[in-house]
Amino acid sequence: MVSLIVHAVLGVAVVVWIMRSNPTIFRRTATGPTLSTLEVVYLVVGLVSVGLGWYFNITFVMDYGPDQLFFNPLWGDGSWAQYLELMYDNPAAGSAGADFSVANVVLLPLITIIDGRRRGIARPWLFFVTTLFASFTFGWAFYLLTVERQRRLSGTVGDAHDAADGADVGSAVGS
């Protein structure tokens, strides 16, 4: 169970590191809401995914881990190695596990690092690091929240309300 607490602390630390690395993106707004509706949606989706994942992670450690407070989280019962082994335990789990692994280990870092650098986001590789402690969905949702917040605070044409209405989609298609 200690390893889960360490994961939680490291997850929060990485999120704080991202926010402190990007003070212009995560600054207080002069006017308007602190978070737009779209930013709230991304945040809620990310946090729900963490809650669901943690429910299953705690269940895994309780069911498969040894009956002791301190144990090796890297190999043995209830460890990362056993977790990964069970992720590929049968063809259905293996299919989902492989898809998740490729998306998390290849696509998310490529997208966040390349797109993040283009947008001037500092340390975009940290969004991948958050997935190691929270969830793939949280890392992805937090990146999308960051991009939306940066766009909204920079005064770029269109806002979350326009995007939700599809107003700027029509103009983008017409151009």
From TrEMBL:
The keyword Membrane applies. The chain crosses the membrane at residues 6-23, 35-56, 92-113, 125-145. InterPro entries: DUF2834. Keywords: Membrane, Transmembrane, Transmembrane helix. The keyword Transmembrane applies. It holds the Pfam family DUF2834. Coiled coil: none annotated. This is DUF2834 domain-containing protein. It comes from Nocardioides humilatus. The lineage of its organism: Bacteria, Bacillati, Actinomycetota, Actinomycetes, Propionibacteriales.
